Amino acid sequence: MKIVVCAKFVPDATADRRFRPEDSTVDRAGVDGLLSELDEYAVETALTVKEAGDAEVTILTVGPEQAADAVKKGLQMGADAGVHVLDDAIHGSDAVATSLILSKALAKLEADLVVFGMGSTDGGMGVVPAMVSERLGLPAVTLGSEVTVDGQTVRIRRDGDTASDTIEGTLPLVLSVSDQANEPRYPSFKGIMAAKKKPVETWSLADLEIAPDQVGGASAWTEVVEVTARPPRSAGTIVTDDNGSGASELVEFLSTNKFL
Amino acid sequence: MSNVLVLVDHTAGKVRKTTAELLTIARRLGEPVAVFIGDGVQEALPALGQYGATKVIALTNADLTQYLVAPKAEALQQVAAKVEPAAILIASSTEGKEVAARLAVKLDSGLITDAVDVVAGDGGPVTTQSVFAGNYTVQAKVTHGTPIITVKPNAATPEAAETSPEVEEFDVTISDAAKTARITESKPREATGRPELTEAAIIVSGGRGTGGDFGPIEAFADSLGAAVGASRAAVDSGWYPHAYQVGQTGKTVSPQLYVAAGISGAIQHRAGMQTSKTIVAVNKDEEAPIFELVDFGVVGDLHKVLPAATEEVTKRKA
Ligand SMILES: Cc1cc2nc3c(=O)[nH]c(=O)nc-3n(C[C@H](O)[C@H](O)[C@H](O)COP(=O)(O)OP(=O)(O)OC[C@H]3O[C@@H](n4cnc5c(N)ncnc54)[C@H](O)[C@@H]3O)c2cc1C
Ligand SMILES: Cc1cc2nc3c(=O)[nH]c(=O)nc-3n(C[C@H](O)[C@H](O)[C@H](O)COP(=O)(O)OP(=O)(O)OC[C@H]3O[C@@H](n4cnc5c(N)ncnc54)[C@H](O)[C@@H]3O)c2cc1C
Q: Where in the numbering of this chain does the Electron transfer flavoprotein alpha/beta-subunit N-terminal domain appear (chain A) (predicted)?
């Protein structure tokens, strides 16, 4: 079985994430980046399936030069190969365009099982898996908090707002997993050394038969009009509880502000 | 005036508050046309009329509810082809976002998710999104196709505008391809009797500092008529169900009042609550980062402060 994990390179959430003033796109070069933490759960899922049977795991990323780090992290965790779609024309792509690039690459890779994270930690739209499923005409089982692959059947448990559902589909299929699905492994020293020898291919848009004007900022179907930093919250009142004083003052605050 | 489609979010005809919000927003952009999928349209009609739906398009094809999101997107595509709407508004739930994602591909249209506000602009709707854990606000618009926008709960205050909409039955054909993933079992969650997290005006959340005892959190929440939330640390420890997690991988909430008890205020938690109108924290560590956000903070033990506060609130309310 051929498993492909779509993994995104994102700016570190604990660093000072910002936008590029010149075109209001995310600054992906000036801020430290990493494999989106939520995609580690997808890598772990793929590796678990592989260990239970016979499968090859490829990490697929679309992103700037530094995004090679995301592929590398997946390889260090235990994936077998990587594909990095890299092309200057991709800069500024929106979700619709990103899903087009991923779909073409997935078709070329002839994936049986495509695994996604639940959402990136930067854009966080949570829409790319559904878009890719739509484009490839494959079934999608999304947001699995528990995943079992049983022959050709993929079954997940999805914990929704009103119910916990069991959802099933047949391979080939698109799967996305939540951060409840597993505990992603850390790369071992052996894994880090082995990753250096694993094959990574870099593909351009031309390799995927995508015209440059089909993607990127110029043809994005959504446009950012304005970006504003949120004004810092004004400093609040902080009291220290002394034998019940904290509760009284808290209730007084709630009362004054009409929450009672 | 042009039509604006609103996908109705409901359970067996009981319309959720987000739909009233979407209809209110739709009126800023054109004439709201509600799309109702499933059973119970007659029951839903008064609520849809109250918030200004000029027409209700009802789709009752059984395939629409037995399978996952793909058939709903197919149905909306067919409705859109007939109505030629100026925009399509969908609630920002996990299902809503997936329906929107598929629809965007089908209609060759731009998609904006998680809008916290939508207004009419020169070239179509202009949305506001709160991004990067709430540290930035982004104004955006769709420049290609039919703008598809998913809107977060509480993005607008529902404003009544009484109409008496007609119901138009609409026949859709669902392809076999859209029926490939199926729900084989569904276990409904037990009702708590508390308001729903994403819609609540007040939320009281507990974290690792509860030490596993959510009793004081629930009691304080009940005294205020609030919903209960939890940090990921509390959820991961098995103390509270994941459906109540607030933060990046849980719910994003924006209530009038958010009370964080025994929660440190990590960036991923902030991402889910930073836009709350008023923030209160109870934490025994005065250095906890949550205090950077608060309007009012108590440095103290939540096991002492919350029960005393609950008693006081109950007394005042009596
Ligand atoms: C703050 C912000 C707001 C944005 N708002 C919008 C908007 O409203 N509309 C819009 O069209 N675009 C928007 N974008 C751009 C959008 O985020 C990117 O186009 C992105 O490539 C796709 O969306 P996502 O990261 O939200 O993906 P999600 O849908 O959240 O990602 C889900 C999964 O898809 C996979 N994946 C996503 N991107 C890649 C990739 N490049 N390589 C490999 N796998 C990937 C990962 O497995 C990931 O876990 C926004 C970007 C930012 C930073
Ligand atoms: C990709 C990713 C996604 C994540 N998503 C989320 C998310 O959606 N939601 C989320 O919450 N987190 C999320 N996290 C985890 C987040 O980083 C923090 O680990 C988490 O929020 C910590 O929870 P906490 O504040 O309850 O626990 P801690 O950080 O351990 O804080 C506990 C606090 O309780 C206080 N305390 C202890 N005892 C008492 C007492 N008796 N009375 C009062 N105060 C007391 C302590 O002083 C401390 O400040 C995510 C992390 C990652 C990497």
A: 23-212
